[in-house]
Amino acid sequence: SSSRQALEQARVAVEELEDVKAVVKRLEEENSELRRQARHTEKEQRSLCSLAEGLQEERLLAEGQGLREQIQAQTAWMANLEVSGGTLATVGGAGGCV
C-alpha cells in the first residue's frame, strides 16, 4: 500500500513536472515573440526619428527660403523707394508706409 502511494505521488509529481515544462516552453515562446516585437518597434522608432529629423530640416529650409524671399522683396522695395524717393514720400504722406 505504501509503495502504491509512493507510485501515485511519483505519477502526480511527473504530471506536475510536465505541466511546468509546458508553462516554461510557452513562456520562452512568448519571450522570444516579445523580443522580436521589441526589435521591430526599435527599428520603427529609429525610422520615425530619422523621418522627424528630415521633416524638421525641410521645415527649417523652407522657413529660411521664405525669409530670404521676404528680405529680397524688402530690399527691392527699399531700392524702389530710393529710386523714386522724393515723389513717394510726398505722395504717400507717411513716408511711403502702407
From TrEMBL:
<feature type="coiled-coil region">
    <location>
        <begin position="7"/>
        <end position="44"/>
    </location>
</feature>
<dbReference type="GO" id="GO:0000781">
    <property type="term" value="C:chromosome, telomeric region"/>
</dbReference>
<dbReference type="GO" id="GO:0090619">
    <property type="term" value="C:meiotic spindle pole"/>
</dbReference>
<dbReference type="GO" id="GO:0005640">
    <property type="term" value="C:nuclear outer membrane"/>
</dbReference>
<dbReference type="GO" id="GO:0051653">
    <property type="term" value="P:spindle localization"/>
</dbReference>
<dbReference type="GO" id="GO:0007015">
    <property type="term" value="P:actin filament organization"/>
</dbReference>
<keyword id="KW-0175">Coiled coil</keyword>
<dbReference type="GO" id="GO:0070840">
    <property type="term" value="F:dynein complex binding"/>
</dbReference>
<protein>
    <submittedName>
        <fullName>KASH5 protein</fullName>
    </submittedName>
</protein>
<dbReference type="GO" id="GO:0000800">
    <property type="term" value="C:lateral element"/>
</dbReference>
<dbReference type="GO" id="GO:0051225">
    <property type="term" value="P:spindle assembly"/>
</dbReference>
<dbReference type="InterPro" id="IPR028170">
    <property type="entry name" value="KASH5"/>
</dbReference>
<dbReference type="GO" id="GO:0034397">
    <property type="term" value="P:telomere localization"/>
</dbReference>
<dbReference type="GO" id="GO:0034993">
    <property type="term" value="C:meiotic nuclear membrane microtubule tethering complex"/>
</dbReference>
<dbReference type="GO" id="GO:0090220">
    <property type="term" value="P:chromosome localization to nuclear envelope involved in homologous chromosome segregation"/>
</dbReference>
<dbReference type="GO" id="GO:0007129">
    <property type="term" value="P:homologous chromosome pairing at meiosis"/>
</dbReference>
